[in-house]
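Handout for the seminar on molecular recognition.
Each group receives one record of this type.
Step one: identify the two inputs.
Step two: read the structure output and locate the region that could contact adenosine-5'-diphosphate.
Step three: write two sentences on what you found, then compare them with the reference statements printed after the record.
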Amino acid sequence: MDPKGKILLVDNEPANLVALQAVLEDMGHEMVLANSGRDALRHLMSDDFSVILMDVQMPTMDGFETATLIRSRERSRRTPIVFLTAVGRSENEMFRGYQVGAVDYLVKPFIPEILRYKVAVLMDLQAKTGELKAANEELLALNVSLEERVRARTEELEVQGRELARSNEELSQFANVASHDLQEPLRSMSTYLYLLERDSGAGLGPEARSHIASALEAAKRMRQLIGGLLAFSRLEIPGRQAQTVDCGQIVREVLQVLDGVIVETEAQVTAGDLPTVPGDPAMLRQLFQNLVDNALKFSNGVPPRVEVGGELRHGEAFLWVRDHGIGIERKDFDKIFKLFKRLHTLEEYPGSGLGLALCKKIVERHGGRLWLESEPGKGSTFYFTLPAEHRDGDGMQNELEAVRSGGS
Ligand code: ADP
């Protein structure tokens, strides 16, 4: 909008138009003159004005009719109209003027200062309205561009997510196939070593026999590692529905499996009341088993004391496995969850370095978190959470949905 603004002066008396022009001249606004209502409408067709000063009494089309038509057009709906009227007109007439959209009245003969003052106020108001409108439009445009950027970024993330899911799937399929394929030659190797020892062992010297024993031991360990890798890669290929799983029951089963070690190490294992969660029973069994197994294993030779506990907290199951064993240094907290990472030699403690990586994956697959608190020499507590109910957004449910619809 023109910062100076334009004024439309409407009067059928040329003398009145000249008088108006003379009063407003030094304000610096461009003025357009119209000598009838129709003439005014014609100007309004092609031009925008900041203020319209209009005589009420005009032949053919009076000020009120003209104002009604001006207001009916979108372009001039909000242009302020000041009526100029002769002295002694009734209040009724003024009321009608306001009804058709006048913002003010000036009674003729008007006082020049007042006319100038009113025009200045209206011009200022129009300029401010224009600025506000422009700011609003700018804001709207900004909003649209922001929405557009959010939409584009979301789309980008979705594509990346699908890409990641696909490459994860490919990787786990590769690990699955590779571990399967590796098992076969390994089995033959073990068999031939076994046959060699059985059929020709007696004729070999003690050194050669010890080499065969070491090779058999290494093959056994490799079988365990491949088995672990296979279990890990299978976690990437679920296809099972979440079931209602009683963690208490799962822990009882795990303790039965580990009974031999418990008796052998004279361990004390206690398990409190544990929550029921939606999940995969086989995976959760594996999770508890790995954690309790570690708690029994890393005990520094004294009879291990292990506690398994859990409760519902803020709508999720909060569970833990605590031991009073050798503990872990804080700097190793992240490391121990990585595939094949161990902090000890096989001679110190047996193991494959797969257990905690599996645990982490199982918990995350269920939509939970796994972490630990530990101090060397004092023991460790492994904590994990699991969503307690079936609800939209649960990791497990989402994973299963994703699998059904072709995702990872
Ligand atoms: P593994 O037990 O087969 O070695 P894990 O992945 O289960 O493999 O554990 C990785 C490493 O984390 C272990 O080798 C051990 O050093 C450490 N660790 C795990 N659990 C405990 C525990 N309860 N106490 C002390 N160290 C532990």
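Reference statements: The first helix runs from residue 14 to 24. Residues 313 and 388 are 9 Å apart (CA to CA).
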